[in-house]
Amino acid sequence: MTLPDSIRSHSEPPPEELVIERLRRTGRIARARWCPSPNFGPRPDGAGISLLVVHNISLPPGQFGGDAIERFFCNCLDASEHPYFETIAGMQVSAHALIRRDGSVIQFVSLLDRAWHAGRSSFRGEQECNDFSIGIELEGTDDIPYTDEQYQSLADVSVCVMAAWPKIRRDRITGHCDIAPGRKTDPGPAFDWNRYQQQLLSLRGDSGEVS
Ligand SMILES: [Zn+2]
């Protein structure tokens, strides 16, 4: 419920700031459905949150819908369901959040914690990106265009994350392919980085502080 201005105290911050403050404090994305994964740990002491990593995933690959991704991140995938699942069922991985094809968001790990999404990785010489990054999966493949709803949700979540952790500037948003080259290809050529960056610019209404 939104209070009329006449009732709201003048000292009360506007709702947007409350959302950001709550995100910074709890690590929980307000709009996300919470589906906790056991695959996480604490971030190392002193590791700030300063990088956003975009991924893709679909299970089985190229098939959308269903709850296999959720079960995979929660170590509940039944290997006998699909031949591909046999190759991944024992892996213990996660991401902070998943954006489905319809734009809905599922969160698996608090943004304050260290999710297991990037693996061996390096961003501009900084190793072990899981220590200091947030990992967001888009339900998709490298070659199938992502949906309008996914771009919108990703941009919405990104601007909140950037407001909560200002070290994540537009030039510290990257793809898994860029921090694990030769090993990973996601989010792939289907992901329109220009479109995403333009959405960030229009939502934030600033220069993006690219330096
Ligand atoms: Zn990835």
Structure overview:
There is one protein chain. The mean pLDDT is 93. By secondary structure, this protein is of the alpha/beta class. The chain is globular, with a radius of gyration of 17 Å. The longest helix has 17 residues, at 148-164. The chain is built from 6 helices and 10 strands; from the N terminus they run αβββααββββββαβαα. Helix 1 packs across helix 4 (148-164) and helix 4 packs across helix 6. The protein has helices at 15-26, 68-73, 83-88, 148-164, 176-179, 193-204, and strands at 33-34, 40-41, 51-57, 97-99, 105-107, 114-115, 122-123, 126-127, 133-139, 173-175. The structure holds zinc ion. Zinc ion binds at residues 55, 176, 184, 186.
Beginning-to-end CA distance, first to last residue: 40 Å
The helical percent reads 25-40%
Uncertain spans? none
User: Helix/strand-derived class?
Assistant: alpha/beta
SSE arrangement:
Blueprint: H1 15-26, E1 33-34, E2 40-41, E3 51-57, H2 68-73, H3 83-88, E4 97-99, E5 105-107, E6 114-115, E7 122-123, E8 126-127, E9 133-139, H4 148-164, E10 173-175, H5 176-179, H6 193-204
Parallel strand pairs: 1-5, 3-9, 3-10, 4-9
Antiparallel strand pairs: 2-6, 4-5, 7-8
Helix pairs in contact: 1-4, 4-6
The structure holds zinc ion (ZN).
